[in-house]
TrEMBL record:
Belongs to the FPP/GGPP synthase family. The keyword Hydrolase does not apply. Pfam families: polyprenyl_synt. The keyword Cell inner membrane does not apply. This is Polyprenyl synthetase family protein. InterPro entries: Isoprenoid_synthase_dom_sf, Polyprenyl_synt, Polyprenyl_synt_CS, Prenyl_diphosphate_synthase.
Amino acid sequence: MSVALKSVITETAQSLEEMLTSLLGEKVLPQEVARPERLLEAMNYAALSGGKRLRPVLMVEAARLFGHEDEGTLVAASALECIHCYSLAHDDLPAMDDDDLRRGRPTTHKAFDEATAILAGDALLTIAFDFIAGEQVHPDAAIRLRLSQELARASGIGGMAGGQMLDLASEHRDRTEAEIRQLQAMKTGALIRYACRAGAILANASDDDIARLTRFGEIIGLAFQLADDLLDLTGDAEVVGKATGKDAEAGKATLVSLLGESHTRQELSRLISEADELLAPYGAKANTLKTLARYIADRES
């Protein structure tokens, strides 16, 4: 990772942590009755567990590409990150992927208990829509409604949750390349696609620009999953921050298992070239997004 990109990621991640800490505080909001201490603690544990915050960074940088940068974008990015973190807390449960380690520390159900981890995930999911509906996100209620609806679709049956269902159904079963690509576009790609698209929407970008950033998000979503699959195959658990080799053990369908490591790396290279071409019209303003795309493809954790 270049020094410049590391600085961007670190700065955005720190700003997001501060925003999440404020949003997930003890203050009881209007129409809330109380915030149970243990549930709030588990929510903070799941949401404030470090990580590079790639989805929020993508949203912030997509908005910045079109000259939009404010606290509202961070609130919208916080909503997205709550959705992502809820999915991790649930994905780690024994009934799902059964993981004990996440980002180098005990998973939420190991740090607390299974019931609390489930409720923490439920609460992070629902509070995300509280955040995205707030006036601070954007003065135009129509924009907030659009962001809310698209976030629901990216995270629900036609997006992440549906992709997770397809992933579970794929264990120890043969899948075609088209089926695996669809699964990955939903399970991993949908929220990354949303991050890039939402940044452009927040900036009131043109329909053509939103479409271009949407395609960029689709490419980066697939690249992220391919890199993840390679890490599971070849990565070191201490570096990756979670157990590796679990895809093969569970008999999960991945493009790496179907096409092989060499072909997968060639596909990653092709995707990054397409991402560069998509962003070429924006010139130097898109350098951070281009560098992010390369980093996502080449990452080691």
